[in-house]
Design a protein that fits this description.
It is a single chain. This protein is of the alpha+beta class. The protein contains three helices and five strands, in the order αβααββββ. A five-stranded antiparallel β-sheet has the order 3-2-1-4-5, with no helix packed on it. β4 and β5 form a beta hairpin. α2 packs antiparallel against α3.
Length: 158
């Protein structure tokens, strides 16, 4: 049997071409790199702005409530020791009301007042291109251009 050289040449070229292409692999597309930075950390980015702000702090009124309850109980007990019959009931009520008022006044003096406290507002351009604004009490010690990570609503230098 005689094989035509044209057919043999085509088969040989096809075989060599297939073998050559089989050795090539397409390189995987690396999606961890963005045009702005490394995207492996979802909460990392570059500080854009840092400014000191003041936030309103709510006062603590727990002592006033506790003082009212303790005062009312103490006043009611003292009032119940005075008087007999219907007078006993009246003095118990009056003692409870008066004790509650005195306890509230004393507790209010020991409560923490509300007011403004200094805080820091940091704007970060995340590696994915989004912006995040964090307001935190402690000074983060960062400035625009620093690379940071946001964790638990706090900004930390990276």
């Amino acid at each position: 049997m005689k094989i035509k050289s044209g057919t043999f040449g085509m088969a040989a070229a096809l075989l060599v071409g297939t073998a050559a292409l089989a050795g090539c692999q397409t390189q995987p597309v690396y999606q961890g790199q963005t045009t702005y930075g490394y995207r492996g950390c979802q909460s990392c980015g570059v500080v854009q702005q840092v400014q000191q702000v003041y936030i309103q702090q709510q006062g603590n009124n727990n002592n006033a409530v506790l003082g009212t309850v303790i005062g009312a109980v103490a006043g009611g007990l003292l009032g119940s020791t005075i008087g007999h019959g219907r007078g006993n009931t009246a003095t118990t009520v009056v003692g409870a009301v008066a004790g509650g008022a005195v306890g509230n006044a004393i507790g209010s003096q020991n409560s923490q007042p509300g007011g403004t406290v200094p805080a820091w507002q940091i704007v970060v351009r995340l590696d994915n291109g989004q912006y995040a604004t964090v307001t935190q009490g402690p000074n983060p010690g960062v400035r625009p251009g620093d690379y940071v990570v946001i964790s638990n609503n706090q900004v930390y230098p990276r």
